[in-house]
Design a protein that fits this description.
CATH architecture: 2-Layer Sandwich
Number of helices: 3
Distance between the termini: 11 Å
CATH class: Alpha Beta
Largest sheet: 4 strands, antiparallel
Shape: globular
Helix content: 10-25%
Radius of gyration: 15 Å
């Protein structure tokens, strides 16, 4: 089964992380079976990378996303964002597993 990664690199306006994080959403907003991470650049605490991993059929994954709710979420985050770098959905083409030591493609 394919795995996909939704990834966005954002530069936040200084001092807005907590407000941005509230607008980003909660665990309940993540599709079933997905896991999400938010990481911060150690050299620039205003640079945030948010990514989530989910396995499944892309058409079914897209069906789980309510476009109106996603648009509202993006609009709620916008006041706290200075710029956006990478932003997209990526197919995982290789997984080198630290937990199992296994490599899957």
């Amino acid at each position: 089964m394919p795995t996909y990664c939704a990834l966005t690199v954002r530069k936040l306006k200084p001092g807005t992380y907590e407000d941005w994080r509230q607008a980003w959403g909660s665990e309940e907003d993540i599709p079933a079976g997905a896991e999400a991470y938010i990481v911060r650049n150690l050299k620039d605490p205003n640079e945030i990378v948010a990514f989530g991993l989910v396995e499944g059929d892309m058409d079914k994954i897209k069906e789980m996303i309510n476009e109106d709710e996603e648009q509202a979420r993006q609009e709620a985050m916008a006041p706290y964002i200075e710029s956006i770098g990478a932003d997209g959905i990526y197919e995982v083409i290789e997984h080198i597993g630290a937990r199992t030591g296994a490599t899957t493609s």
